[in-house]
Amino acid sequence: MLQGKAILWTPFSLFQNGDRWLRGAGSRTMAFFMILSLLLLVLVTGNVLLSYWKQKKLAKLLPPGPPPLPLLGNLTCFDRVSACKHYPKLHQKYGPVFTVWKMTKPIVVLCGYETVKDALVNHGEHFSERPPLPTADINGKGYALSSDSKSWRQIRRFMLSSLRNYGMGKKSMEDLVHEQLQKLFSAISEKKGKDFRPIHLLGFAIYSTMSSVIFGENLDYKDPKLYDLVTATRKYIHSINLPLYQICNAFPVLLKVPFIRNLVINVVDDVHLIVRTYADAHKASIDITSPRDLLDTWIMKLKEEESKPGAPFDEKSIAIHVGGLLAAGTDTTSSSLTFCLVMMSHVPDIQERVQREIDEVVGHDRVPGMKDRPQLPYTNAVIHECQRTLDLAPIALYHAATEDIQFRGFLIPKGTTIIPFLTSVLSDPAHWKNPEEFDPDNFLDDEGQFKPNPAFLPFSAGPRVCLGENLARMELFLMFSALLQKFAFRKPAGAKDLDLKYMQSNKMAFLVSSQLCAIPRSAPPFSA
């Protein structure tokens, strides 16, 4: 009996006394699954040991960092929220360049202005790629999140050129913002001094402006098409944080399953459908001698490039890249503008100083224009300080090393993911007098004139700097200055004082829940 048991449970005995194992299908099936289980166990164990050995070997070359768990990495740095809480501590312990691990893949984190600038600007070409992000690649190669190195430069050059040349001989972007302000003034006035949540109205204003720029359609705030655009775009924007996307990016083999792949694509398909619908209508009425909007310029580019093999401009790219531009230029701007107004309601002395400056330079017969910005240094400084304090994007979009490179005394292998920690730049004590406080003097010289601060990098820096930076800056200045010219903003009765630390840890919850009271200023009426 003991020998028989040995035959049943000792793998080597499976090949001894074969007669006993060949009696009946049940015994043969049991033997097969036992051998298969043993082989799988050996393979898994070997893979774990090999991965751990590679991880240890690679770690000796990379910057220092917290010890990772085998296969799992540094669990506290898996998502952006927890990472933002731990990075400052790791920065203090390991210095401005350190390594964390996401499972078996290293991520090099860059902290402080000098380090981030050195990487993204001085070594910009060496850190200009994106790491593989499977869910982004199947939804749109070549755009902001895609790792497709062959097409993103061409697409970026074209889109920057289109934005720069927009409105030649027609309405400029500034004209479109001024038109939008009239609708925004009316919508706020309808509140009749009652408390309201500004992020909704300001969101409609920014989305409607972008609709004008991209599609040539200035949508009313009650138009169902605007609601559909906002809903679809926000679904697109937040898709990267969905658990489904996180799992598929960690285990890209799942995207080979048709059902899962379709789920990933469908998340962003709503905004693509909107763009395709507009594109079809534009194609039927386009005048190539007189483009009406950015979508017309994209369609013209498609026709120009369609005969060139391998060109990144095709029918599918219209929805992908125009949709991506729409996503990039909306919620970040409306969130920043919301915080600017909420901040003013908590610092009435600063708000009044801004209003005095606007009254003296612009008056009340017209709204402020971009030509007024050099003469409004304090207003400009307040806007910049609001953006710095809000720190809306603590972590820039991930970069990747284009080749093996020696950086700050460490070897960073080709393909390594790079994270610029922008919070550490916007609060770098070497470049900000009071980094933990709201202080417009951070952007003023001794004579009260606006002074750019090189560490102001809310849009990141280098070859991958935010595509819509100039448009966002223009919208923020024009809308903020015009709104403070027209209204005085007050916090609701009984509202608590603003806690900046709480706000920075709960940004979106804070912005969505914040309320304001807008009081028309006692000045002659005017229109945009």
Automatic annotation (TrEMBL):
<keyword id="KW-0472">Membrane</keyword>
<keyword id="KW-0812">Transmembrane</keyword>
<protein>
    <recommendedName>
        <fullName>Cytochrome P450</fullName>
    </recommendedName>
</protein>
<dbReference type="GO" id="GO:0016020">
    <property type="term" value="C:membrane"/>
</dbReference>
<keyword id="KW-1133">Transmembrane helix</keyword>
<feature type="transmembrane region" description="Helical">
    <location>
        <begin position="30"/>
        <end position="53"/>
    </location>
</feature>
<dbReference type="GO" id="GO:0008392">
    <property type="term" value="F:arachidonate epoxygenase activity"/>
</dbReference>
<dbReference type="InterPro" id="IPR002401">
    <property type="entry name" value="Cyt_P450_E_grp-I"/>
</dbReference>
<feature type="binding site" description="axial binding residue">
    <location>
        <position position="466"/>
    </location>
    <ligand>
        <name>heme</name>
    </ligand>
</feature>
<dbReference type="InterPro" id="IPR050182">
    <property type="entry name" value="Cytochrome_P450_fam2"/>
</dbReference>
<dbReference type="InterPro" id="IPR017972">
    <property type="entry name" value="Cyt_P450_CS"/>
</dbReference>
<dbReference type="Pfam" id="PF00067">
    <property type="entry name" value="p450"/>
</dbReference>
<dbReference type="GO" id="GO:0019373">
    <property type="term" value="P:epoxygenase P450 pathway"/>
</dbReference>
<keyword id="KW-0349">Heme</keyword>
<dbReference type="GO" id="GO:0005737">
    <property type="term" value="C:cytoplasm"/>
</dbReference>
<keyword id="KW-0408">Iron</keyword>
<keyword id="KW-0479">Metal-binding</keyword>
<dbReference type="InterPro" id="IPR001128">
    <property type="entry name" value="Cyt_P450"/>
</dbReference>
<comment type="similarity">
    <text>Belongs to the cytochrome P450 family.</text>
</comment>
<keyword id="KW-0560">Oxidoreductase</keyword>
<dbReference type="GO" id="GO:0005506">
    <property type="term" value="F:iron ion binding"/>
</dbReference>
<dbReference type="GO" id="GO:0016712">
    <property type="term" value="F:oxidoreductase activity, acting on paired donors, with incorporation or reduction of molecular oxygen, reduced flavin or flavoprotein as one donor, and incorporation of one atom of oxygen"/>
</dbReference>
<dbReference type="GO" id="GO:0006805">
    <property type="term" value="P:xenobiotic metabolic process"/>
</dbReference>
<dbReference type="InterPro" id="IPR036396">
    <property type="entry name" value="Cyt_P450_sf"/>
</dbReference>
<dbReference type="GO" id="GO:0020037">
    <property type="term" value="F:heme binding"/>
</dbReference>
<keyword id="KW-0503">Monooxygenase</keyword>
